Amino acid sequence: MEIIIQTSPETASGLLARRIAALIRRKPDTVLGLATGSTPLGLYKQLIQMHREQGLDFSQVRTFNLDEYIGLSPSHPQSYHLFMWKNLFDHININPVRVHFPSGLVVGENLPDYCRRYEEEIAHCGSIDLQVLGIGSDGHIGFNEAGSSLGSRTRIKTLTRRTMEDNARFFETAEAVPHHVITMGVGTIMEAREIALLAFGEGKAAAVAGAVEGPITASNPASILQMHPQAKAYLDEPAASKLARSDYYRWVFDQKPPWQTDP
Questions:
Q1: How many domains does the chain have?
Q2: Domain of 140: which CATH number?
Q3: Is 216 within the bounds of a domain?
Q4: What is the pTM of this model?
């Protein structure tokens, strides 16, 4: 895993935005895996700016979102469907037919078949070219909580109390946070050709240190990214503060030859 430490979330997000833009310009029908939450908001703002000011064309891009709360309609104020349209899709020229979300309204015995079809749709599009991830304070990626199988596929998951508490700030009350989600599995995520993990703030430092320098373990699902041939972690200084080898990571990034530098 390549570790990229920057002075601010804006700078780190900018590096990834330029990487995504270069990928789209080279391959207009790029398939992106996208995340929600506060962490990627800066990335999405910069992509919107590139579309408006540089003509970055999203018309052929396809997207697949990582997850969705079960029980929330696409129009619910806290649905990830609405989040993506509000914070990215409404501001770029993406074709709505090319946008894919897990549905929060599929329930019961229909769920396994639905999850299987979501995976089949990803495969039909040629797999994900670049998957954007955040990381939970316990190391979860998507909603693959600590203890999730590192080979898991898209499925229903029960949220931990800690994740529900972390997400309660987005809802009117803590009791309103759904208990279940549909999420891409760890195995699904690992099939992306490239993975970009964003992590900002001291609250993510322990999870980042475990994912980057700790053992590969289901107790920190993000640690499996150590096994991916094209995984990069884009961090700000506070998120990198518990890394034992942070000076080495900075040295490696600063000494890259021009041909190896993104984008």
A1: 1
A2: 3.40.50.1360
A3: yes
A4: 0.94
Q: Please check whether residue 202 is in contact with residue 165, taking contact to mean a CB–CB distance below 8 angstroms.
A: no
Could you tell me if residue 199 is inside a domain?
yes
User: Does 95 reside within a domain?
Assistant: yes
Active site residue 180: no
**247 a catalytic residue:** no
Q: Is 138 a catalytic residue?
A: yes
Q: Which of 68, 119, 129, 138 is catalytic?
A: 138
Specify which residues 131 forms β-bridges with.
33, 195
- pLDDT tens readout for residues 35-63: 999 999 999 999 999 999 999 999 999 99
φ and ψ at 236, to 5 degrees?
Answer: -95, 175
Q: Which of 68, 81, 129, 140 is catalytic?
A: 140
Q: State how far the Cα of 115 lies from the Cα of 104, in Å rounded to an integer.
A: 11
**Rounded to whole angstroms, how far apart are CA atoms 11 and 255?**
18
First to last CA, the chain: 17
Within a domain: 261: no
Contacts of 36 (CB under 8 A, 6+ apart): 65, 66, 67, 80, 83, 84
Is 29 designated active site?
Answer: no
Q: Which two tokens stand for residue 216?
A: 């590969």
The single residue of 68, 119, 129, 145 carrying the catalytic annotation is 145
Instruction: Report pLDDT digits (tens) over 157-213.
Output: 998 888 888 888 888 888 888 999 999 999 999 999 999 999 999 999 999 999 999
Rounded Cα distance between 51 and 68, Å, is: 26
